[in-house]
Amino acid sequence: MDDSIRLRIATRIHFALLRHYGEQVDVGDLLRNEATTREALWVCDASGDAEMVGLARQFRHANKAAAKAAAKAAVPQAMPWRQSSGFGLSRPLELDESGTPTSWFRPSTWLKGRHATR
């Protein structure tokens, strides 16, 4: 789940706590500080307000999804393209069996026309 979703939910929790209890909880603390998050969500659950209970549930779900995404990103992935040069060639042109390169590979022919040679 995207971090922007967590930010939006944390902002809504911030304003709900401010509106209902006059408590100003920093949005950054809700996103980074586990103790602050746990306490704010506990207050939301205990409030009995349907909106605040729903926000707490959504925030927990978003945190779990973010943790899953982070764990999945930490697993090394196979990258088959890493063995190539990145330009579509898997070996140098000197090792190519065709011998001399075609006129396309000679920059002197690019502007002079197709049949010009050096």
Nutshell version of this structure?
The protein has 118 residues and is mostly helical. It has two domains: 3-74; 85-109, no CATH class. Helix content is 54%, strand content 0%.
Task: Write up this protein.
Helix 1 packs antiparallel against helix 4 and helix 3 packs antiparallel against helix 4. The chain has helices at residues 3-21, 27-32, 34-47, 50-74. It has two domains: 3-74; 85-109, no CATH class. It is mostly helical and 118 residues long. Helices cover 54% and strands 0% of the residues.
What are the main properties of this structure?
118 residues, mainly alpha, 4 helices
Write the layout of secondary structure elements.
Elements: H1 3-21, H2 27-32, H3 34-47, H4 50-74
